Every structure is written in C-alpha cells, then in structure tokens.
Amino acid sequence: MTFKPNLLSLIILLIICASCRKNENHEFQTVDFEAFKVDLPKTWRVVDLKGIDSYIKAIVTTDGDTLQFDYGFYSGALEEESPKVYPANLRKIFIERGRDTTGFIFLDKEIISSSDLEPYRKQRLENKIIDGFRASIMTPKKAGTGITGVYFDSLGDDPIGNIQLRFSGNNLKPKNSALFLKSINTIRISRDTTTSK
C-alpha cells in the first residue's frame, strides 16, 4: 500500500513548516548608541558599563552570551595570536635550549610561509566595507569557540588619533554568532565622529 498525500495533508504540512520557521526568525530593532546604530534582536538587552578612556557597553543575548563594544582611541584590533609553526629541524635546537615546545607545530619544511600558518589558525578574518568604512570581521573556524566580531580602525580623526570601534563576543553559541553577524552588517556609523564618547 503506498501513501498518496491529499491536498489537506499537504496544507497541514505547509502550516507546520511555516510555524517552525516563524519560531526561528528573530525580530530586530534599531539600537542607537549615538556613535553608531545597529539592528539587534529585540530580546537582547543592553547593559551599561563604565569605560575609562572609551565608550563601552555590553549586550546580553537571550540565553546569556555577552557581546561588548569599545568605541574610542584605544579599542584594540581583533587579532589572533599567530600559530607557533616552525621547521622540523628546529625542534632539536629548542629542546636542547630548554624551550617549552608545548603547542608548537613542526613541519617538514625548510622555510615556513604565511600560507603554512593558515590551517592552524582558529579564526577567519574578512575585510569589507560597512556603511562606507573599512571593517575587519572575525569569525571562529569552529562554531562556538573563538571570537565573533568586527573592528573599524578609523572612524574619524582627532588630535589624539583615530577613533576606533571594536564590537565582539567570545565563544558565542552558533545561533547567536549568526545573529550577531547579521547585526554587524547593519551598523551605521554616526558621521559626527570627530570626538570620542
């Protein structure tokens, strides 16, 4: 006996699928931080923090992940420590000199190039333009482990230096990381960025 779906069962199936998708969608709202605006999920909440030399705030997701932004002259780029990759012939020299080689990677090569490091990096870095400004977006290669964030290195000039924005979170759940990446692409920088907040 073979099953032949009738029109009613197809309609019920479509309704179930549509309601599942509706639950997966998140409503976004524009949050104005004066220095910039960004669309964030409505269920995420903003927490005030006190910065010493910059304007900072935290954003807490519905399930407890935390993001933070730092807007000012000393925000700091999103950087990953370079993997410790060396030619195999150096292993013996390191050991003889008493150097701890824990976490080192030795390759059967005479010279290590930047392309040799790439497989051992934990993060991906992409450069793009967001709202007319150059931005670096960092994402973890392994979901849930590492930094998800964006860094703008020059949003305006001031006698002290360039105004920067770093907005990131560590070890975000994959769902929150994906929502945050959507938010990053909605950032609108205030054009009055000649002084820090």
Automatic annotation (TrEMBL):
Name of the protein in its database record: Lipoprotein
Organism the protein comes from: Nibribacter koreensis
